[in-house]
Amino acid sequence: MKYKNFINLLRKTHNAEWEATPSTHDAIVWLNDLIQFLFPSNHLPKQTSYEGILKKNQIDLENILLSYLDPKVFDIEGVTNAFYDELENIYNNLRLDATKIYEFDPAATSINEVIVSYPGFYAITVYRIAHELVRLEVPVLPRILSEFAHRNTGTDIHPNAQIGVPFMIDHSTGIVIGATAQIGNNVSIYQGVTLGALQVAKELAEVKRHPTVEDNVIIYARTTILGGKTVIGRNSVIGGSVFLTKSVSPYSHVFNTHQLRIDDKQKVLG
């Protein structure tokens, strides 16, 4: 048969990959159901069993983990229970994130508007869920979740990053936060910000490659901050379109000094 060797190669490769990864479809359904449970987008019937919804979601996570992890090696039941034990804290932290976004954004009319419609809040929501799975040493699944949020919001937050509470992302598009980035409490980041590495090399996988941003920092649009040794001191303001590869002290104000010249055409002709 034509392509026989190729077909056999595909079967062998696919079987090996399926055994090592969860279903992307099942992972996204589980994520969406969990977010809908935490932040319903419509009125739930009065007879709705919150306990029943939560139990189903828990079973779904167990089944996802069972589909690609060996229960003899990985404590699937223990990890699942630990995740849901932490769910209340995740929810409370997300409420604080939403409140901060509402308080900072003059265009926001309510906290509920932020929760149901802001892509930045959605990106943070998925990050906090995925990060808890990382903390519990669940492989692969957190990246599936974070990349789903990346595709839908334009914000790329690695689930390994450490981000404090509350956290604000405004406008969302084009933000990149690397795996070893550390962000403190009460930090605000605007569109186009990158917290990245100075260089990319596989041998640096276990090295801190991304910046540290301390508490109460604001980073405005299109700013790039690179390097694992770069620290943005607490209470600093980093202006738009800044490129930083070195640390700044607490309470610093850093701005791009490029000057824009605008000539009044009428005065020039006159």
Automatic annotation (TrEMBL):
Keyword terms, alphabetized: Acyltransferase, Amino-acid biosynthesis, Transferase
UniProt KW Acyltransferase keyword: yes
Biological process terms in GO annotation: amino acid biosynthetic process
Protein name listed in UniProt: Serine O-acetyltransferase
Keyword Nucleotidyltransferase found: no
Top-level taxon in the UniProt lineage: Bacteria
An example Gene Ontology molecular-function term: acyltransferase activity
